[in-house]
Every structure is written in structure tokens, then in C-alpha cells.
Design a protein that fits this description.
The chain is 39% helix and 17% strand. By secondary structure, the protein is α/β, with parallel strands linked by helices. β3 and β4 form a beta hairpin.
């Protein structure tokens, strides 16, 4: 993330929080709607708790989106939002819980609603998650709900109110948490007297773009009870081995973002795969002594960036830097486990949104994804949003995606 992008993210967060203070005043004392605890043998996606977190008029939604630089032409309704707590599984397949944001449009009548799965981008502090913070993580969910669809925005494992630390860029667990959020959303809609049609629309940004593609693959065939109608991820790192890792070395990823993403990725993935035995094998001094503590889910993005150097070469030992260019062992295993989200044949139409000005997730990732899909006979156009940075790519793309979803029967 560049300096200008960090400043933009902070201003969006501050502005959104100030707006939320005014809008959520009536919800502060609202009690959580408690679902009855289910039996210990209850399955994945079982809904445990529903907590109201926002109630916005159409004008308030439009103001919130405008503050985040999102176009408001698709805003037709106000929205109500809830934090869902539901059962899922952890990275080892063991029972755990997760949380997510569920948003309903304030539509009149009893018509059933299509559901948008909206998977978020990289978040380092657990309280940045959509179900907790009224900031930039809610821009896209509110946009899609205000256009007339229900929205399921999972926090993922270890973010929001879920236990443990976040297994950043672990595609498998992000997919299970997202799929189980869909099941919990159906139950939550029922509890609110609303019906979901079974039509599913998948989108997501950055990390969530990759998750959206992998989730679509997981849900093919309608085995979740939903039928995927369209897939529209934004700026996803679909090709870690062929694009994202090489871009750390050749300058396509800016130094600050490269340090942030790479350190987060290595620390989180080392908890799952044998990448290094001691941080000093991968990280230079003095960063080896602090890097793992920074990614405990309790440090802000600004704190993490401020404690690390400005370039990957300053962060990583020379030997590990060479290993990044020629992965072996646990690192190669890690990359392989998180690549391939586009290597399959979707039945629903796919549009890949990206920006040629992105120096966090270069547009080559989208082109690699399109090539993988083309290998299965699927044409997925790369929708270039122009010479804008990473965070602005979603601001430009999301309203277009909302219109595309709305145009479908």
C-alpha cells in the first residue's frame, strides 16, 4: 500500500466512523437477537447469534458511499445490517466459530432476494472486519444491498469476533468460512422474515477477489443450495507464483506494500506450512525479533508498516530472498496451495476487474486468471479500471458490478 493509499484508507476509516456515530446512535442499546444454542453435533453454517449493527436510510447509505469515493447511482434502498456468529471449521477441519456481516435492503413487499457474497481484502487488525468496523470494509456490502440484494460478507477466521489469529491468504479456510456464511445468512434472513431466492452473485476485493474465485469453484453444481449467477472479483492475487512473487522483485509492487503483504503472508503461512523454523532464517535483524508479534490481530496497519523497513530487500535475508525467486520446500508448498483458484470451468459468466495502475496486486494476476479460464474454454474479460492505485480500483469497479448483477434476470 502506497503512502497516498494509506492516507486514503485512514481518511475513509475516520470519515466512515464519524458518520457511523450519527447513524448508529439508536442501535447502541439494541440487544443482540439471540438464536437458541444448537446441539453439539450441529453442522457447519449453523447460526448462533444475530446482532444488529446498523440501520441506514437511503440518504445515509448514499452519504456513506460518497465519503468512500463510491458512485451512488445504484443506491435505491436503505439497509439494515447484522453481525452473524456461526459454526464453521478451522484450518485443521476442527469445529470453531466465525462472524460476518449480513446486510438486507429495505425493500417493500415480500419478494425473495438474490444474495451477494462479498469477500473482503487484506485486514491486519481483527476489528477492521466488516461485522465490527463501520468503515471501508462495509462500502461494497452496503452498495450491493442498497441496489436491492442481500449481502453476506464474511470476516474470515480470526477476524471480527472469531477466535484465534487470522490465517492470512489461506484460501481453503477462507472458502469454508465464506461458504458457511452463506448458510448462516439463509437462516438469518428467515429470522428477519425475509426469503432468499437461491440466486448467488460472487464478488470480492484483493485477497477477497482470490477467495471469490475459489468459492465459486467450491460451490459449482449448486451443492450449497445456491445457484451461482455471476462472478466479478476485483484485483485479486490469483497467481502468487507466476505474478505476485516475481512482482516483488521487479518493481511492479511498490516497496511499502511488498513489505506489508510479504511479511504478513510469511508469518501467517508459517503457522500452517514449514517455511522457516526461526524468524531469523527469513527476516533480517532487527525485524526478525518483532515481525511475528506485529501480526497478532491487535496491531493497526499503521503500526505494522511503521515497525518494518521500506523495501523487501531490507526485510528479508539474502538467502531467503533467493529462495523467494526459486521456492522450495514449505514455501513452494504454500504457494501451490494458494494458487489455482482460476484453473477450472465456471458455468456462470465471469468478469475480472483490475487496474493497470495497481502497484499492490498487478493486473498481470487478472490476465493469468483469464488465461487459466480460457484453457477451460471460458472467456472472462479483464475489465481494466485504468491507471488508478489498488484501493481506487474497487471504488471504480464495485458500482459497475452492482449494475451488472442488477441487470441479470
Amino acid at each position: 500500500m502506497t503512502n497516498s493509499t494509506r492516507h486514503q484508507a485512514r481518511s475513509v476509516r475516520r470519515g466512515a466512523l464519524a458518520l457511523a456515530t450519527l447513524m448508529l446512535g439508536g442501535l447502541v442499546a439494541a440487544p443482540a437477537v439471540q438464536a437458541a444454542e444448537t446441539a453439539p453435533s450441529a453442522g457447519r453454517g449453523d447460526l448462533l447469534h444475530v446482532t444488529p449493527v446498523a440501520d441506514l436510510s437511503r440518504a445515509e447509505v448514499a452519504a456513506f458511499l460518497a465519503e468512500g469515493k463510491f458512485a451512488t447511482g445504484t443506491v435505491r434502498y436503505g439497509v439494515t445490517a447484522y453481525r452473524l456468529t456461526y459454526r464453521t471449521v478451522d484450518v485443521h477441519g476442527q469445529a470453531t466459530t466465525a462472524t460476518g456481516l449480513f446486510v438486507l435492503p429495505k425493500v417493500s413487499g415480500g419478494r425473495s432476494l438474490g444474495l451477494v457474497s462479498d469477500t473482503h481484502g487484506t485486514m491486519v487488525h481483527r476489528d477492521y472486519a466488516p461485522s465490527v468496523a463501520e468503515d471501508s470494509g462495509r462500502l461494497s456490502p452496503y452498495l450491493h444491498a442498497a441496489a436491492g440484494k442481500a449481502v453476506a460478507a464474511p470476516d474470515y477466521l480470526g477476524l471480527g469476533k472469531g477466535p484465534g489469529t487470522h490465517p492470512y491468504m489461506d484460501t481453503r479456510s477462507a472458502v469454508t468460512a465464506s461458504a458457511d456464511m452463506l448458510r448462516a445468512s439463509r437462516s438469518a434472513a428467515d429470522r428477519q422474515g425475509r426469503a432468499l431466492s437461491g440466486d448467488l452473485y460472487l464478488t470480492g476485493f484483493s485477497q477477497g477477489g482470490q477467495v471469490a474465485m475459489a468459492l465459486a469453484r467450491e460451490l459449482k453444481g449448486g451443492k450449497s443450495g445456491f445457484t451461482t449467477r455471476a462472478v466479478a472479483p476485483v484485483s485479486g492475487p490469483y497467481d502468487l507464483s507466476g505474478e505476485e512473487m516475481p512482482a516483488l522483485d521487479d518493481g511492479r509492487v511498490n516497496g511499502t506494500s511488498g513489505v506489508f503483504y510479504l511479511s504478513y503472508f510469511l508469518v501467517a503461512q508459517n503457522r500452517l506450512h514449514p517455511i522457516y523454523k526461526d524468524p531469523s532464517e527469513a527476516f533480517r535483524a532487527p525485524y526478525a525479533d518483532r515481525v511475528e508479534k506485529l501480526f497478532d490481530g491487535r496491531h493497526s496497519e499503521e503500526e505494522v508498516i511503521g515497525a518494518l523497513p521500506g523495501s523487501v530487500k531490507e526485510l528479508i535475508t539474502p538467502s531467503f530472498y533467493e529462495r523467494l525467486k526459486h521456492p522450495t520446500g514449505g514455501l513452494k508448498e504454500t504457494l501451490a496451495a494458494n494458487d489455482g483458484s482460476c484453473d477450472w470451468k465456471p458455468r456462470a459468466p465471469v468478469r475480472l476487474y483490475a487496474a493497470r495502475g495497481d502497484t499492490d496486486v498487478p493486473i498481470g494476476n487478472a490476465r493469468s486468471c483469464a488465461a487459466d479460464l480460457a484453457g477451460h474454454g471460458v472467456r472472462a474479460p479483464v475489465m481494466d479500471q485504468g491507471g488508478v492505485p489498488h484501493m481506487e480500483s474497487v471504488a471504480k469497479a464495485a458500482p459497475k458490478i452492482a449494475r451488472w448483477f442488477a441487470s441479470m434476470p
